[in-house]
Specification:
The termini are far apart. Strands 3-2-1-4-5-6-10 form a seven-stranded parallel β-sheet, with helices on both faces. Strands 7, 9, 11 and 13 form a four-stranded mixed β-sheet that branches. The protein has helices spanning 15-26, 58-68, 82-87, 89-110, 143-162, 193-201, 229-244, 262-273, 297-302, 312-326; strands at 6-10, 30-35, 50-52, 70-75, 114-120, 165-171, 173-175, 209-211, 223-228, 249-254, 259-261, 280-282, 291-292. The chain folds into two domains: 6-175 and 226-254, 3-Layer(aba) Sandwich (Rossmann fold); 193-224 and 257-326, UDP-galactose 4-epimerase, domain 1, CATH 3.90.25.10. By secondary structure, it is of the alpha/beta class.
């Protein structure tokens, strides 16, 4: 076993969970991947054992924690597509909220009381200002964001009632891929902007669309804060260390403080790849706010975290290297 002990990675076979598993291993821990493989990939589990299970199964969670003598849990297991959450909110509340309650029940039964939780910038809804501080959370504008915000409130209640230490990390737009192109962003169907645009260049997506050109933004398209997945992984190690040092927890934005519009991302992809992305313009999607840009100062002050890999060219180059490997060009 790794010298620092085991960390349970719930959802560790997914995009962000696998990158964080690699970082956990690099930091001297054993990452134990716990994933039902509904959307995760066995091939992404490369740095520790895989336990196939659902977070809602509190008994299996508890036995896994006990078997590996787990010191803390990182929780990435969730549904995360905004549009899908609007169309089927029940699925999101069952998987995200009820699933997390099962995970927490299993953790408490096994005597494990430290959790790093994968939250989201979607908790800010239409915050109406930028950059957005942690105090601006709510009201949310889609069931996905609501489910994550509910979990944050549950964790606060657990902290107060049970002394359960947790850190919620509110990601803005996760993107990019591991520099070695061993793992990257891969889901079916793909819903995220950058991978869909790259897959359109490769002939795997025939209907790449920009949803909404009439937002109150400089070029009319939605503006987001994009953070490289390698930076997210570094922040998770910082949060884990803080919990293991006995801190009670908190809530932190993970972003850069800089926003890019959808059109700016598409133009940057053109510059980096030398190819123009074929674009279809469509109406706005329900639940999409105009601007979401993080104020990252709190994470920098308390976690010592500042994004180092999230310049736009690096994001696109790393994602493009991964997609060329994972999705060979058609034709």
């Amino acid at each position: 076993m790794a010298s620092k002990g085991a960390i349970l990675i719930a959802g560790g076979a997914g995009y962000i969970g696998s990158h964080c598993s690699k970082a956990v291993a690099d930091a001297g821990f054993l990452p134990v991947c716990y994933d039902n493989l509904a959307t995760g990939h066995r091939s992404f589990v490369q740095w520790g054992p895989l336990v196939v299970g659902d977070v809602a199964d509190s008994i299996k969670v508890a036995t896994t924690i006990q078997k590996y003598d787990v010191r803390a849990v990182m929780h990435f297991a969730a549904s995360s597509a905004v549009g899908e959450s609007v169309a089927d909110p029940q699925a999101y509340y069952l998987n995200n909220v009820a699933g997390t309650l099962g995970l927490l029940q299993g953790m408490r039964a096994a005597g494990c009381d430290r959790l790093v939780f994968s939250s989201t910038g979607a908790v800010y809804g239409n915050a109406g200002r930028e950059p957005i501080p942690e105090s601006a959370a709510g009201p949310t504008v889609n069931p996905y964001g609501r489910s994550k915000y509910m979990i944050e409130q549950i964790l606060a209640d657990y902290r107060a009632a049970y002394g359960f230490a947790s850190i919620a990390l509110r990601y803005f737009n996760a993107c990019g891929a591991d520099s070695s192109a061993v793992i990257g962003e891969m889901r079916e169907p793909e819903t995220h902007l950058i991978p869909r645009a790259l897959m359109a260049l490769q002939g795997h997506v025939g209907d790449f669309a920009i949803f909404g050109a009439d937002y109150d933004t400089p070029d009319g398209t939605a503006v987001r804060d994009y953070i490289h997945v390698d930076d997210l992984a570094v922040a998770h190690i910082a949060a884990l260390d803080r919990l293991l040092q006995g801190q009670p927890g908190g809530v932190y934005n993970l972003g850069t403080g800089t926003g890019y519009s959808v059109k700016e991302i598409v133009d940057a992809i053109h510059r980096e790849t030398g190819e123009a992305v074929p674009v279809v313009m469509r109406e706005r999607r329900a639940g999409d706010p105009a601007i979401l840009v993080a104020d990252p100062a709190h994470a920098e002050r308390e976690l010592g975290f500042k994004a180092q890999h999230s310049d736009l060219p690096n994001i696109i180059r790393s994602a493009w290297a991964w997609h060329q490997k994972a999705h060979p060009r058609r034709g």
